[in-house]
Each structure stands twice: as structure tokens, then as C-alpha cells.
Design goal:
- The structure is a homodimer of 224-residue chains.
- The first copy, chain A, is α/β, with parallel strands linked by helices and 224 residues long.
- Chain A has one domain: HUPs (Rossmann fold, 3-Layer(aba) Sandwich), CATH 3.40.50.
- Chain A is built from six helices and five strands; from the N terminus they run βαβαβαβαβαα.
- In chain A, strands 3-2-1-4-5 form a five-stranded parallel β-sheet, sandwiched between helices.
- In chain A, helix 1 links the parallel strand 1 and strand 2.
- In chain A, helix 1 packs across helix 5.
- The longest helix of chain A is centred in the middle third of the chain and has 16 residues.
- The first copy, chain A, starts with a strand and ends in a 9-residue tail after the last helix.
- Chains A and B meet through strand 3, helix 3 and helix 4 of A and strand 3, helix 3 and helix 4 of B.
Chain lengths: 224, 224
């Protein structure tokens, strides 16, 4: 039996690297997809390229979409500062409709490849409170995806896999380590510098470093 | 009371121009959104710009996304020919996940604008059999959209308006004429030339010209 194909959304961060490792370990031939969306933490795309190769993705593509044109997020608008302390509510780093858009790109590519499996590293436990990281969002997108495609006319078997959705950051780290993910090459920081060094202060850095602490393993992150 | 804001997806074709006219007539302040997605019928973006201005959109933006990188459609892949006679099944002009992606962009912009209304010109009667033009697709996207946004955390009132979804092409034309749409400036052709002249042979041209015939009004389309 030939391996099933999967499209894996790969940001270059800790979570999506672990998801790719999980998908590869499950026997999928993985087509990794990163998105250039005007993010200021651009170094993550370089990280994604290395991770895709290291974990054995059969292909890695970077697609472009100009979310910066929409604005409204500190991740795409240089005029908005990245918070370096906890904030109440949904933070300014939230990018409107980002996961809807990324999943739509993954869906289009999956349809062209003939893949019925999309993997995404969303997480609703140690996360930043983004609405499009919740399990009910993923379930709703899966229902949409089954209607949205050619195969959907006859009732598609398309599945959106979000294996991390109910895991803690520490559990994600332990899972990744078990599968050989080199977390030193992943970048989670919202404002990593051109060399890929993390700020250590933003929401994403704080969640990540707390995760390594909770997991009881050394934090290999390169801090600026 | 101030007017409600709406995001209106505007391709530059006959259907979306009519939708914009309907939204304006309903009292919305309309932000028109066109997408540059690697389509070969590029003249439609120029048409969209004129239509947005003529119908009184308060703003018109063109966002870019590289669907050509996904391939699989004659609309984005120059190596695939546009069919010039009816074909069985879902035609090669179908662009994988296109409406999911366009609606995701509209959703992101709506969220930034603080709009709860998105208009889209999909039509499931005189159409090309695309899965993402069906009413059940639109309803499913609306459910997704209500979960996907900041407002969705508290339960958003977001509505996806698809006023043409059950109308015939002739009825769409009559509605547009009544609202002052200048159909001569719209472009529906899948392979319009650089001057915006239609081929008269593709699926979209055939549906459009049959629509004018059924409506009993002269076809103002400029054919090559």
C-alpha cells in the first residue's frame, strides 16, 4: 500500500514542527506549507525550510498572501508594538482570520495533490487566546472543507488533524523530543531578529520557555 | 443612525457587480475587495476598480495571494486550455478552494473594519458546477466565520450574504439593470484579452450571453 499524502501547515515554530514529526511518524508523505503573510518574524520561514528537510517532508512550499494589507495585528503592522508582558483578552498579536486563510490554502493544495489529510499545529491549552485555535473552530473548518472541494460534491473524507489541540506546551515538547525534533532550529518568537534569535519577552517566548521548564528539559532557544 | 459597513467581494464580473449594487442599495457603506490570485483573466481587476467607483463603494482594495503556486486550474495555469465547449462534471476552470480563500480574506478585513456583513456573488443556478458556489457551502462558511474571529469568542453576529445564490442569470441581469449596473464595464470571460474583450466561447461567456438572451435585453459585452 502506498503512503497517504498529507499537507502539513508549518510555521517554523515549536508546535508545527512537532505536528510534522507526528505526521511523518504516522506514515504520511508530508507536503509542508508555510505562508509568507507579511509577518515581522520573517526568520520563521527560514526555520521552516530547515525543519521540513530535517524531518523528511517530501516537499516544502512557501505561499504568499498579503495579510499586511488588512492590518489590525502587531504581527503584520510595524506601527503596533509586540506586548512584552501579559495582556487581558485577545492580544494585539492576533492576526484576523489567519488560520482560516492558512487552512484554505492547505485545502486548495490538498485538493490538487489528491490528499484527504491536513495537519495543523493549533493548540488551545498553553496558547494566546486566539479564537481560531479552538477545537470548535477546527471542527467547523473540517465540515466546511468537506463541502468546499470537488470531492465534496460527492461527500469527501477530508480530515483536519490538530493533534496538539488539547496538549500542554510541556507535553508538546516531550512529544517532539521523542520524535527527534531539533527545537533549537524552531522559532516561536513574534519578533525574532534577522539571525533568528528570540526576544525572550513576548507572549510566544514566555509560553515556550515555561513549556521547557514544565517539561524539565533544557531550553535550547537562542535568545538575543 | 450611521450606515453599517460591509465587505463586498468584487471580481469585476456581472454577478459581483450586481451584488455590490444590491449592498449599496440596501444602505451599506461598502468596502470592495478584489483578489489577484494569478488568474489569467487579469483584465477583470481593472474592471473591478471601475465598477467599485461607479457603484459608490467607499473603498476598493486588491489583495494578492499566489493560487498559481497551487496549480490544478486552467484559470491559473497557462499550460491548461480553457474549454470552449460544454464539459461533463466540474470543469478544469474550477480553482481549488478559491471561495474559501476569498471569504477568509473578506473575513479578516471585516474583522479589522468592525463589519459584520460580507457579500459574495456566488450563484448555484446558471453556474459552472463549482462546489464552493452552493448554498450549503456558504452556510457552512458563515458558521465557521462566527467561530473564527475575536467577536466569535463571545458569539458573533457575522452574516455572509449571497443574494444571488438561487437566482437565474437572467434575473441577476434584470436586478443589476434596475440598480444601474453598467454591464458593459463588467468582464466575465475566463480569457478576456488585455483590452478586456471577451472570447465568447468559454463557459462563463456562454452562461452570460444566454443570460442576456433570456432576460430579453441587448448583450453589451465587447467580444474580441
Amino acid at each position: 500500500m502506498s503512503a497517504r499524502l498529507a499537507v502539513v501547515l508549518l510555521s517554523g515554530g515549536l508546535d508545527s514542527a512537532t505536528v510534522l514529526a507526528l505526521a511523518v511518524a504516522s506514515g504520511y508523505r508530508c507536503h509542508a506549507l508555510s505562508v509568507r503573510y507579511g509577518q515581522r518574524h520573517y526568520a520563521e520561514l527560514e526555520a521552516a525550510k530547515k525543519i521540513a528537510a530535517a524531518l523528511g517532508a517530501v516537499e516544502h512550499r512557501i505561499m504568499s498572501v498579503d495579510l499586511a494589507g488588512i492590518g489590525g495585528s502587531a504581527l503584520t503592522d510595524p506601527a503596533l508594538a509586540i506586548p512584552e508582558a501579559p495582556t487581558a483578552g485577545i492580544p494585539i498579536t492576533y492576526v484576523p482570520a489567519r488560520n482560516t486563510l492558512f487552512l484554505a490554502l492547505a485545502l486548495g493544495w490538498a485538493e490538487v495533490l489528491g490528499s484527504e489529510d491536513i495537519f495543523v499545529g493549533v493548540n488551545a491549552v498553553d496558547y494566546s487566546g486566539y479564537p481560531d485555535c479552538r477545537p470548535e473552530f477546527i471542527e467547523s473548518f473540517e465540515r466546511l472543507a468537506r463541502l468546499a472541494t470537488k470531492a465534496g460534491v460527492g461527500g469527501a473524507a477530508l480530515t483536519i488533524h490538530a493533534p496538539l489541540v488539547r496538549m500542554s506546551k510541556a507535553d508538546i515538547i516531550k512529544t517532539g523530543l521523542r520524535l527527534g525534533v531539533d527545537f533549537a532550529s524552531t522559532i516561536s518568537c513574534y519578533q525574532a531578529d534577522f539571525a533568528g534569535r528570540a526576544c525572550g519577552k513576548c507572549d510566544s517566548c514566555r509560553l515556550r520557555s515555561a513549556g521547557f521548564l514544565d517539561a524539565g528539559v533544557p531550553d535550547p532557544t537562542r535568545y538575543a
